[in-house]
Amino acid sequence: KRVAILISGGGSNMIALARSMEGAHPARPVLVLSNDPSAKGLERAAAMGIPVAAVDHRPFKGDRAAFEAALVQQLDAAAPDVICLAGFMRILTAGFTGRYAGRMLNIHPSLLPKYPGLHTHQRALDAGDAEAGCTVHEVTSVLDDGPILGQARVPVLPGDDAGSLAARVLVQEHALYPAVLARYVTGDRRPVLL
Ligand code: GRF
Predict the structure, then answer these.
(1) Each residue's pLDDT tens digit, 105-130
(2) What is the residue with the minimal CA distance to atom 5 of ligand 1?
(3) Which of 108, 121, 137, 174 is catalytic?
């Protein structure tokens, strides 16, 4: 199976996914694509020998469809079977999510359906939650929604701030996403619960 990974920044989740595919694995990364040409993850992917590309979203200003058409051009050239959004920070239109329906995943740093959107860790702290975590889900036209394919939970500890909680969750993201992908590419849709 051919896997394309979309990133916007450091790409730590992309690295975890790529490393998980290095051994005997039914999938391999065929493209790492970013909306930011300066994304550190692009250099890190290239250093692992993975083809990289960038489509800077800024010249497109508000024209999401035109930006997405440029993404589609890069993606279709790589002909992925599965697309993994990994720290990808642009909202995608229904046209794009519809094109890849049933074969696009995302990781979100909360226990969905709680806290879709941004600032998830601060919101969990503000709510006094005892637990936090991350979710891998199939991407639909509704932001941070879609069938849940995996979740990992962490305790919220006394003295936690958004940064310390994010760091604890990120460790679980790096375990969860590869576990979900390994199962997903076999056609198994049972959720991974860590
Ligand atoms: C992570 O918290 C991820 O859940 C969110 O973006 C953050 C950075 O991801 N979507 P990465 O290090 O770029 O993979």
Answers:
(1) 999 999 999 999 999 999 999 999 99
(2) 87
(3) 108
Burial of 13 (0-12, 13-18, 19+ CB in 10 A): buried
| Centroid of ligand 1 to alpha carbon of 16 (angstroms) | 11
Tokens of 139: 């991407």
In this prediction the pTM is: 0.96
Among 85, 169, 91, CA closest to 124:
169
Residue 187, C-beta contacts closer than 8 angstroms, at least 6 positions apart: none
Q: Which atom of ligand 1 is nearest to the CA of 173?
A: 4
109 lines ligand 1 (CB under 6 A): yes
The Cα-based distances of 129 to 22, 65, 80, 107 in angstroms read 37, 38, 38, 20
ipTM of this complex: 0.89
Position 88, amino acid: F
Condensed to tens digits (0 to 9), the pLDDT of residues 48-61 reads: 999 999 999 999 99
The band of 62, judged by pLDDT with boundaries at 50, 70 and 90, is: confident
